[in-house]
Amino acid sequence: xxxxxxxxxxxxxxxxxxxxxxxxxxxxxxxxxxxxxxxxxxxxxxxxxxxxxxxxxxxxxxxxxxxxxxxxxxxxxxxxxxxxxxxxxxxxxxxxxxxxxxxxxxxxxxxxxxxxxxxxxxxxxxxxxxxxxxxxxxxxxxxxxxxxxxxxxxxxxxxxxxxxxxxxxxxxxxxxxxxxxxxxxxxxxxxxxxxxxxxxxxxxxxxxxxxxxxxxxxxxxxxxxxxxxxxxxxxxxxxxxxxxxxxxxxxxxxxxxxxxxxxx
Length: 264
Prior knowledge:
The chain has 264 residues and is mainly α.
């Protein structure tokens, strides 16, 4: 093909492309301007409609809540009443069931005798299981929990002993002398559990509770002196030592305690 024809075709093609581009650009420019304006109007209209719908929905919600609220409150009161009645029935059933299932004194005495025999034989695992059996039959038996805790102390299971004696202090109630002595003993045993865990401060606090009930108990004073020395409470140790010397002057530990206090 001659070169001039090729050039002519190229020129014609460029002219056609230029015309098409110019026409398209003009159309696109017009459409964009129009669309932008229409889009703005559409968005404004949509916002107005949405705001109006939200206001109407809010009004309907407020009116509906005024109607529904008393109904909800009434239903709530009904359910609370039913719940309270169920709790009362449950408590009454539990008390009646406990009264029926609680073993007699003879059966308990037999189980305690077996537990004591196992403890004397140093079969502590079997003794522990026996006390747990008693507690399964009588879950509020203070003696069973107390002696179970003492088994844990013997086994040097101090954490279980702590939990058991904590429970004993909660079980004991009343202001009788017998109950007070039981409580003093429980606090003393609790202090022994803390002593075994090297928590001397807490052990000291619980012996102090025992001494509030029995201030002249030599065993409690003995323990208090030992703990006062461990916590390096020299003044309190001397006070406890003087009390022990007064109530039990023949105590063989007095000289040893005195030496330990002097070394503080």
